[in-house]
């Protein structure tokens, strides 16, 4: 079985915030790390990249009088470094839409589905001052639904409704502010409507697709799909490859979706030198694909993308699971760059350890409903779950092995096994399968609930067995307790690795083992640490965060310093 894992491509107009991160990038990384342990490293491919094209970046470049590529070169490298080096995201390939492989693949793919593409003349707003058509964010005006006066031509930031330039009231050019005129222009349209029945059948027959994704996609189909414009009258993007389409580019959403395939091709061509092997992850029945996205991206991933794959008639594997999160709010409000509401991923590392962030965000992952990020809850998770439940349990076991058995794993006496021993042993043996069942459905938060049962039950077990008292009465019972305990820690390190890889490796090292990445997921059920094994150097894995930390002051200080470091596009 080949496992394809993808996270939605972040648009590099801004630094991603915590909500962006947990919705796609971090969730996909946790799953990919799990899948490598469960299904084998060679059977997993994890890709994404920077989405660089589109009108917002072009507008910014026009205002600065520079080439858009100058802006995105810096932004891409900055965001890529944050993902790979700061947040420890384990992409096999993190690429960009300015990749030559991507640009050529998109053009070839669209030419291959040309029988499902037609042209239409449209009336579009045109700025006579700047001599350009005004698609998407090139135009602003009043939202016809909520009355917000600074709505964009593609969407209203206030009410969230999707818009088109023709719907705006009192429209104006986003560059110079002048009132546009209406002119005719020709565009190329993808016949999305022709795929309604096939999409509906695919969704209804899918056993794995989450219900929330099915519901949104089927609702879209039920309302009646219409042809979607493939082209834009812009210069920044992939040139439209169709005859007569000179001066037009491909709409950013169509080409970014095809990036999942081009990133796979690029990985095997550029890094593995096996140019045909990408097909193993895109064709045939022995493939399972996972896409991690936010809920606003469902229609693009569950309707438009599969329709394009079907249109190619090449036999591309359609998505198995599109794991879509609801929204993560910040202290009751939407994340907002302009209003400084939220935490951005280059700010987070200055507040607390990145593994702490990874754990907190998965524990708060909005899998069923919108979730509120509250600092008091984040601190509770770190101080209670990471430090008290997990860290304290590990520390207790290891320190007692050092104190009572000179750092060597003691014997196990099966004839002395009691009901408390059996209960914890069963939890250790059952938990990997329980977590797998949830992770395989994209339910990462729910899976983390199961992982947490080991240290919580383990701490209760220690309190009942009281080795510190029992050592004076029956050393063999203490040996059994700590033998089970050390093996439960090994199991815990493996299960925690996808969530907090750096800390899991430290746990693994403290129990005297190396190369956690070479373990297998199912081996977490086994008691492989044998009597006589020497544990490593022991120290606290986690530490508590001060509850009186002045987060707002800290964030303001961090932001002032980052303003000098962030690339121009991301400030």
Description:
The protein is of the alpha/beta class and 571 residues long. Among the domains are: 2-113 and 253-352, 3-Layer(aba) Sandwich (Rossmann fold), CATH 3.40.50.620; 372-525, Isoleucyl-tRNA Synthetase, Domain 1 (Orthogonal Bundle), CATH 1.10.730. It has helices spanning 18-39, 55-64, 68-86, 100-112, 196-205, 211-222, 252-271, 298-312, 345-348, 354-363, 375-405, 419-439, 444-465, 467-470, 475-496, 501-510, 551-562, and strands spanning 2-7, 44-50, 93-96, 117-127, 132-133, 139-142, 151-152, 169-173, 181-190, 228-229, 231-232, 249-250, 287-294, 321-325, 328-330, 371-373. A five-stranded parallel sheet has the order 3-2-1-13-14, with helices on both faces. The model has no long low-confidence stretch (mean pLDDT 96).
Defining key terms:
45% helix, ATP-binding, 571 residues, Isoleucyl-tRNA Synthetase, Domain 1, four-stranded antiparallel sheet, five-stranded parallel sheet, aminoacyl-trna synthetase, elongated
- Overall pLDDT: 96
- The general outline is elongated
Radius of gyration: 27 Å
Please identify the top-level CATH class of the domain at 2-113 and 253-352.
Answer: Alpha Beta
Write a brief caption for the model.
The protein has helices spanning 18-39, 55-64, 68-86, 100-112, 196-205, 211-222, 252-271, 298-312, 345-348, 354-363, 375-405, 419-439, 444-465, 467-470, 475-496, 501-510, 551-562; strands spanning 2-7, 44-50, 93-96, 117-127, 132-133, 139-142, 151-152, 169-173, 181-190, 228-229, 231-232, 249-250, 287-294, 321-325, 328-330, 371-373.
């Amino acid at each position: 079985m080949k496992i394809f894992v993808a996270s939605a491509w972040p648009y590099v107009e801004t630094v991603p915030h915590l909500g962006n991160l947990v919705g796609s990038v971090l969730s996909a990384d946790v799953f990919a790390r799990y899948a490598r342990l469960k299904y084998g490293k060679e059977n997993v491919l994890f890709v994404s990249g920077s989405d660089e094209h589109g009108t917002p970046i072009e507008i910014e470049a026009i205002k600065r009088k520079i080439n858009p590529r100058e802006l995105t070169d810096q932004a891409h490298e900055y965001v890529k470094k944050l993902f790979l080096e700061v947040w420890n995201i384990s992409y096999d390939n993190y690429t960009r839409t300015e990749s030559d492989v991507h640009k050529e693949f998109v053009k070839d793919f669209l030419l291959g589905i040309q029988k499902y593409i037609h042209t239409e003349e449209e009336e579009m707003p045109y700025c006579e001052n700047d001599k350009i058509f005004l698609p998407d964010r090139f135009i602003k005006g009043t939202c016809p639904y909520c009355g917000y006066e600074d709505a964009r031509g593609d969407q209203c930031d206030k009410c969230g409704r999707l818009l088109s330039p023709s719907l705006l009231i009192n429209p104006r050019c986003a560059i110079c502010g002048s009132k546009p005129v209406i002119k005719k222009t020709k565009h190329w349209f993808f016949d999305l409507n022709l795929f309604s029945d096939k999409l509906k059948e695919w969704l209804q027959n899918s056993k794995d697709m989450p219900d929330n994704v099915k519901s949104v996609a089927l609702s879209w189909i039920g309302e009646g799909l219409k042809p979607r414009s493939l082209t834009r009258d812009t210069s920044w993007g992939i040139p439209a490859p169709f005859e007569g389409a000179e001066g037009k580019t491909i709409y950013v959403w169509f080409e970014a979706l095809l990036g999942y395939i081009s990133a796979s091709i690029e990985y095997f061509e550029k890094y593995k030198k096996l140019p045909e092997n990408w097909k193993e992850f895109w064709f045939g029945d022995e493939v399972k694909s996972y896409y991690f996205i936010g809920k606003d991206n469902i229609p693009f991933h569950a309707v438009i993308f599969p329709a394009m794959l079907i249109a190619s008639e090449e036999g591309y594997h359609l998505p198995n699971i599109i794991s879509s999160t609801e929204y993560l709010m910040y202290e009751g409000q939407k994340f907002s760059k302009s209003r400084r509401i939220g935490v951005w991923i280059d700010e987070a590392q200055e507040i607390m350890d990145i593994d702490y962030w990874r754990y907190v965000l998965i524990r708060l992952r909005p899998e069923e409903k919108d979730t509120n990020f509250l600092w008091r809850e984040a601190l509770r998770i770190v101080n209670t779950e990471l430090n008290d439940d997990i860290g304290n349990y590990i520390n207790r076991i290891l320190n007692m092995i050092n104190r009572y058995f000179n750092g060597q794993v003691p014997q196990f006496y099966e004839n002395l096994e009691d009901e408390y021993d059996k209960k914890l042993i069963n939890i250790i043996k059952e938990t990997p399968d329980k977590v797998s069942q949830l992770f395989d459905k994209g339910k990462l938060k729910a899976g983390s609930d199961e992982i947490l049962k080991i240290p919580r039950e383990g701490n209760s077990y220690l309190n009942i067995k009281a080795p510190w008292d029992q050592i004076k009465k029956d050393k063999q019972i203490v040996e059994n307790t700590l033998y089970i305990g050390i093996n439960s820690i090994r199991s815990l390190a493996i299960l925690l690795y996808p969530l907090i890889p750096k800390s899991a490796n430290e746990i693994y090292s403290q129990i005297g083992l190396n190369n956690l990445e070479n373990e297998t997921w199912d081996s977490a059920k086994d008691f492989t640490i044998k009597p006589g094994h020497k544990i490593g150097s022991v120290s606290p894995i986690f530490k508590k965060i001060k509850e009186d930390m002045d987060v707002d002051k800290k964030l303001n200080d961090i932001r002032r310093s980052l303003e000098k470091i962030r690339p121009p596009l991301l400030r």
